[in-house]
Amino acid sequence: MRNYKKYQRIFGIVLDSVGTGAAIDADKFNDTGADTLGHVGAAYKGNLSLPNLGRLGLSNLRKEAIQGIANAPYPLAYYGKMIEISAGKDSMDGHWEMMGLPVFKPLSTFPQGFPQAIIDQIAEFSGRKVIVNQPYSGTNVIHDYGEQQMDTGELIVYTSGDSVMQIAAHEDVIPVEELCKICRFARTLLNGPDYQVGRVIARPYIGPDKDHFIRTANRRDFTLEPPSPTVIDQLHQAGYTTIAIGKTNDIFSGHGFIQTYHNESNMDGMNHVDEVMKQNFTGFCFTNLVDFDTLYGHRRDPQGFGQALMDFDRRLGKVLHNLKSNDLLIITADHGNDPGFRGTDHTRENVPLLVYSPSMQKSGPLGTRPTFADFGATVLDNFNLARGEYGTSFLEQLV
């Protein structure tokens, strides 16, 4: 009979793209040597200040401490890292695997651009010409083609090394709802069997000219429908409260969540976390903070990445203060996006795992978890729900 502690509320926070060193299979992704946290720390030359993450055990989970973040002699949290078993290194793969649904079949990628037949259908549906149609940095593509898009009303379609179609348009030229309607149609073309793409992303931007264009928080992700129930669905079906903050709801195509919040930024997301923490509920709140990835990882900006980590760390202090004895906090990531690495794509990395509750009597290592699905298995275990095919709970290790 299991008699270890159970928690009323679990708060999961995904620091999007905050990897902690190359995965064992990084060579298959041409990512050998990637280390998001390590390279951000190196860029700050010992001046990266993450006191709250540090005292939880962020450096303890690594073979080499992050520059400026010494190992905590007595870390507050249980700490470890997780290995991804999914075929890709995208947000969808990572989040689905966390919630018990690894993606083993490689999704379609388009290093030469999308087939003309798909582009033609998007053009016909939208009544707009499609331009670019090749792998491109999101910020570079609006710099290079944004003014043309404003002048002509065309659609900027591009991709990356991940299984993703992105469609960009200026908000003053194509309203966000129209852009989302076009993306929803594009989604129907990429659900298989010939082409199966993880995400179609609406990428609205604003600004007067190419030197001042910025992408807005009106981004929307249109993902594949999960082919089978996830941990979120199981919780929902069992009557527990399920809350999504950030793009989490989009990643699961809206499945299973009863309360959702759209983030304008990481700090807006933390405002939502603070708001939810004031609520009395029994269940799971799943948060994604995407700025690390979109604003700094893809742009290969280690200084900005580090500042975003320090901003989060300050807000984390409030979360730690407000946690109740029957709350459990799990901090992790969905992949890497090393701003000190080559290219502009995600990097195949292990992800950190920090687990804390004020009621814990001890702390210590959780080791290297063999799959992200251990996260979801632990949530199910906590709420006395049957574990799925993937993942092993670490709840019993939390003393």
UniProtKB/TrEMBL annotation:
Catalytic reaction(s) noted: 2-deoxy-alpha-D-ribose 1-phosphate = 2-deoxy-D-ribose 5-phosphate; alpha-D-ribose 1-phosphate = D-ribose 5-phosphate
Pathway: Carbohydrate degradation; 2-deoxy-D-ribose 1-phosphate degradation; D-glyceraldehyde 3-phosphate and acetaldehyde from 2-deoxy-alpha-D-ribose 1-phosphate: step 1/2
Primary enzyme class: isomerase
Record's cofactor remark: Binds 2 manganese ions.
Presence of keyword Transmembrane helix: no
Cofactors: Mn(2+)
Binding site for Mn(2+) 1: D16, D334, H335
Compartments where located: Cytoplasm
Protein's UniProt keywords contain Ubl conjugation: no
GO molecular function: phosphopentomutase activity
Residues engaged in binding Mn(2+) 2: D293, H298, H346
Residue stretches making up the Metalloenzyme domain: 9-385
Keyword field: Cytoplasm, Isomerase, Manganese, Metal-binding
InterPro entries per the UniProt record, alphabetical: Alkaline_phosphatase_core_sf, DeoB, Metalloenzyme, Phosphopentomutase_DeoB_cap_sf
EC nos: 5.4.2.7
Gene3D superfamilies listed in its UniProt record: Alkaline Phosphatase, subunit A, Phosphopentomutase
CDD domains: PPM
HAMAP family: Phosphopentomut
NCBIfam families the record matches: deoB, PRK05362.1
Stated role: Isomerase that catalyzes the conversion of deoxy-ribose 1-phosphate (dRib-1-P) and ribose 1-phosphate (Rib-1-P) to deoxy-ribose 5-phosphate (dRib-5-P) and ribose 5-phosphate (Rib-5-P), respectively.
PANTHER family recorded: PHOSPHOPENTOMUTASE
Family: Belongs to the phosphopentomutase family.
Record protein name field: Phosphopentomutase
